[in-house]
Amino acid sequence: MTFEGRLDTLASLQVAKDMEVLYDCEDHDIILDCTALEYISSSGLRLFLDLLKKATVKGSHTIIVGLSKDLYEVFDEVGFISLFDIR
What we know:
Blueprint: E1 2-7, H1 9-19, E2 29-40, H2 42-57, E3 61-65, H3 69-77, E4 85-86
Parallel strand pairs: 1-2, 2-3, 3-4
Helix pairs in contact: 1-2
């Protein structure tokens, strides 16, 4: 899945619906491409964490690619660096 622009509270409502298809993936790599993502709010972070939990139970591996320096720092501050495979 590719993310662009701002993943704020308002955008999270639609993104949550778009991500539902990923919840059913079993034994697959799920790649979240954040190359064009400029901002992520706590609502967006919660979506990533929910996906990670559901994917792990189904044997899938969640990979985040393309984090900018600023977003990497956000992920680091909230402890996501140790949870996700970030490349």
